[in-house]
Design a protein that fits this description.
By secondary structure, the protein is mostly beta strands. It is about 5% helix and about 50% strand.
């Protein structure tokens, strides 16, 4: 009997024993903290694909750090950078770099939406009044240190919610053929904040600090270092990740060489 390509075990590689099921992928009780800041325009531009440009000068970036205790993929940690951009008149948060520490989350993110995930060693802990999140890749090479204090309850309208944009690029498997995919994918996250009976939305604002501790040519997160901090937030939320929507196909538009990529 052939593999059922429509069933859960036939959705992703290895076919017949999928590493992850079809979306939507669900997250419950996720803790997400982030810093919003200005960055250097020339440095940020080095990591943006054609047609994707910051919607301001200096560009606005966010560093997000995440603790996911219950998900489709199991518990794991994640961190990523967003750049606020515009593509064909539509504003997005573009995600150029992202780390995770769980294999199914890495594979699903890269294969479905084009998230540029790599594995890294990360830690989320809370000491005194601060959240501290660290990233090392490889172990001993500290790339990022993030801290945040919970100073006050925040309003949801303080946070700018935009669709997430990523570049899904699949290189060629045959020298006579071009890339299998080169496209910008839009994701609209579905979900909401946790609620408490007295305080309402579990959303806090506080003082954030971000240090890109050491540069790395292999993982150039230092290109997104802050030039001016704007805000810090932390929330607890439930959400789901559905399939995305292609908003720009570089192959169809002839913007990628069919054989050379």
């Amino acid at each position: 009997m052939a593999i059922d390509l429509t069933g859960p075990s036939g959705f992703s590689m290895p076919m017949g024993a999928s590493l992850y099921p079809p979306p939507p992928h669900h997250f419950h009780g996720a803790k997400l903290a982030w810093a919003t800041y200005e960055a250097d325009a020339e440095a940020v531009a080095r990591m943006l694909p054609p047609g994707v440009k910051p919607d301001s000068n200096p560009p606005i970036c966010e560093l997000w750090v995440c603790d996911y205790p219950s998900t489709t993929f199991g518990p794991y940690l994640e961190a990523y950078v967003h750049v606020r951009v515009e593509v064909d008149g539509v504003r997005y948060w573009y995600q150029p770099v992202i780390f995770t520490n769980r294999e199914p989350a890495l594979a699903a993110g890269r294969e479905i939406w084009g998230y540029a995930k790599k594995l890294a060693t990360m830690a989320w802990r809370e000491e005194a009044e601060q959240i501290i999140f660290t990233i090392e890749r490889p172990v001993g090479k500290r790339l990022v240190t993030f801290t945040l204090s919970r100073d006050r309850l925040a309003r949801p309208d303080e946070v700018e919610g935009l669709p997430i944009l990523s570049l899904r690029y699949i290189p060629p498997s045959d020298p006579e053929r071009g890339p299998a995919a080169a496209e910008l994918v839009r994701l609209d996250v579905e979900g909401g904040l946790h609620q408490t009976p007295v305080l309402g939305d579990v959303l806090w604002a506080g003082r954030a600090s971000v240090a890109f501790d050491s540069p790395s040519e292999v993982d150039p997160w230092h290109l997104f270092k802050p030039t001016r901090m704007l805000a810090g937030h932390v929330q607890t939320a439930n959400f789901s990740l559905p399939l995305g929507k292609v908003v720009k196909d570089y192959l169809a538009e002839g913007l990628v060489d069919g054989k050379n990529g």
